Amino acid sequence: MKDRASKKQIEYVCGNALIRSLRKRIVFFMVFIVCLFGGCGQVQREVRGETGIKEEPGSEEESMTDKEPVTQALPDNDSIKESIYDYYGKEDHEEINEEEMEAVKGKLPAYFLTVHSGEEFALMREWYDWDSVQSLIVYFSGDLKEWQEEDLLALKQYHGSVTVESDAGTVPARAFTYLTGAQEVYLFASTDVSDVTGILPEGACFPTQMKAVTLFGYQEGKYAELLRLLQDSQVETMTVRPDARTEETQNFWLDDVSGIGTLKVLTLQDIAIRIRDEAAIDGSGIERIEGFIDRDTDLCFVERLAHLEEITSRIVDVRDLSPLMERKELALYLEFYKKTKEFSQEDYGGSNYTVCPDFERMVSLPGEAEGNRFLGIYQRREDQGRVAECFIIDWFSEASDQEGELRMMDTEPWIRVTEGSAVYELRPEEGYGFLAGIRNRMTFEDINFDGVKDIVLEAGSYGTQALTYKYGWIWEQTSGRYEFSPAFAGIGNPVIDAEQQLVRSSWRNWAASHSWAIYRYVDGQFVMQGKLTEEPLFEEDIPPELEVPEDAEVWRWQEEIMEDGEVAEVINSYAIEAEGEEAIYTDSERYESYYAKDSYWG
Question: Among residues 232, 293, 292, 221, which one has the least CA distance to residue 263?
């Protein structure tokens, strides 16, 4: 639980700490006097041993300095030690007795762990609750000498995500055969690892259950052996991230993954798309691809990839983009920003945009991209014969151009819908803001659950809580057009739950408090059906009927049930948590229902 922070609480805690400190000093002083004067005048019996003078066993007073430090009994692993102290809510100088250590074995929670050897892995298996571990970083040497076979076999029982690392600059191919439980693998988060070595053992294959792979620190030519190793895998999604230490744009050759027959999604982050042999990619099953398109990108891949459904790309050079437009059913998301990271005021202006006049004429964009107006993002999607094109235009002040730089004034989003001969525009209603970002995605999505997909556009993230809003245009059968929904635009962080036919919302109130809300579409409006708030209570807010031990924390889950837009019922449940003890819930069944898989609150 999070620490409470109020002036009153701080003064209370500090006062108690001072009192405890004074008490300890008085007790220590009394013990010292007793020892000095031999227990009020009695002669202290001593026995001499080979190592010096010590108290005779059975002595009423035991020397404090002869006690064996408690920390010697703790496991020799800093991660486990820290987890034990966290489990009991104790400081590292406080006592952890043997009973407490035995009681916690196999129960320590951990979201992620780092393992450097088989011996360390065996120790962690003994102490941690492996159902709570979702991410594991595993280090392998080039010859696996730090791993016993039994520990490698135990890796097969782990089913979370795995990051494979190495201090030796390489990872043996054989290591992957022990990751048969992991669904996702991140390879070489360290940019010092160059590739894999060796081949898979006879009869072995890359784990077939592993569907997603992420390659870090990519440079052109790197991971050649690894990509060959993946040719016969069942990987469906691959993400490639460049080496952050190189400033030049890296190239990725589609030929290198053409043999992965199951690959459907290829995401090249800040990496350019390349092809060596056009015929080599003909049989590829890639459905979605992301990557730079520059002057050297061969756009023949658009026609060669027969299963291609969507392209996400940043256009970094002026060039002919007609191959993208000619494939009518292809969904497009094109950024015309040359730079999309770490924007600063001086980065804005004409030099930061790739202006393609031929493309703008091709999409019939009104006016010319000159002066104070630039096309930032273009999107195209199709559904049921309706084509939606989204244009995000950045506007700059006219006067700033005379000073040698442009200052952004506004961003204007609008959507053009074409259905047969009918063409019309969609715009947000006046008063609704829009914040341009790297991913202002437009999608077709049924948000009112009438069986017809509507149009949704991300409107940006706002505030320190990064609350994201979306615009929604709902298909109206009577008018035969999409209509803007102000109610949907007011929902923070909306998520469409098609199965339950509702819209979910969630947000952070402050560091330790979160809320969830549920909306249903009723009579043309999105109406809140309920709200759940999780928060720690300050001392003055704790209900007097709760029996709360001193210094314990109290958390409340407040469920508000709505009717006709008003709060009809409020249900509170609490958790009382004292240091080193299990939390006590006033309604454990209701608490568990909030976080159960596929629960009403999601």
Answer: 232
pLDDT at 39: 39
Among residues 222, 228, 223, 219, which one has the least CA distance to residue 247? Answer: 219
**pTM, whole model, 2 decimals?**
0.80
DSSP letter (8 states) at residue 337? B
Mean pLDDT, all residues of the chain: 84
CA dist., res. 49 & res. 52, Å (int): 5
Report the alpha-carbon distance of residue 457 to residue 512 in Å, rounded.
30
Tell me the C-alpha distance between 459 and 471, whole Å: 6
Among residues 314, 302, 293, 305, the alpha carbon closest in space to that of 264 is found at 305
* CA-CA-CA-CA torsion sign (401, 405, 409, 410): positive
In DSSP terms, 162 is beta-bridged to 136, 185
- Cα 108 to Cα 269: distance, rounded to the nearest angstrom: 36
Distance of alpha carbon 246 from alpha carbon 251, whole angstroms = 12
User: Which pLDDT value is given to residue 469?
Assistant: 93
* pLDDT grade for 461, boundaries at 50, 70 and 90: confident
Q: Which of 37-41, 112-116, 123-127, 439-443 has the lowest mean pLDDT?
A: 37-41
Least Cα distance to 307 among 258, 264, 275 occurs for 264
The C-alpha atoms of residue 412 and residue 365 are separated, in whole angstroms, by 13
In this structure, which amino acid lies at residue 265? V
Give the position of tokens 């506004």: 410
Cα–Cα distance, 397 to 31 (Å, whole number): 80
As to burial, measured by CB atoms within 10 angstroms (0-12 exposed, 13-18 middle, 19+ buried), residue 563 is exposed
Fill in the DSSP letter of residue 307: T
Contact 239, 271 (CB under 8 A): no
Contact assessment for residue 333 and residue 313, using Cβ atoms and an 8 Å cutoff: yes
Taking alpha carbons only, the member of 340, 260, 331 closest to residue 302 is 331
Measuring CA to CA, how many Å separate 242 from each of 71, 217, 249, 270? 44, 5, 8, 7
Of 352, 396, 351, 392, nearest to 371 by C-alpha is 396
- What CA–CA distance (Å, rounded) separates 55 from 48? 9
Dist CA 271 CA 248 (whole Å): 10
Judge contact between 429 and 484, C-beta under 8 A.
yes
Q: How many whole angstroms separate alpha carbon 36 and alpha carbon 32?
A: 6
Cα–Cα dist 73/63, whole Å: 20
Please, is 14 exposed, middle or buried when counting C-beta atoms within 10 Å of its C-beta (0-12, 13-18, 19+)? exposed
What single letter denotes the amino acid at residue 27? Answer: V
> Using alpha carbons only, how large is the chain's radius of gyration in Å?
32
Q: How far is CA 174 from the centre of its chain?
A: 30
Return the beta strands (E) in 145-297 as ranges.
161-165, 170-172, 184-187, 195-197, 212-218, 237-242, 250-253, 265-274, 288-293
Q: What are phi and psi of 96, to 5 degrees?
A: -120, 110
For residue 92, what pLDDT is reported? 83
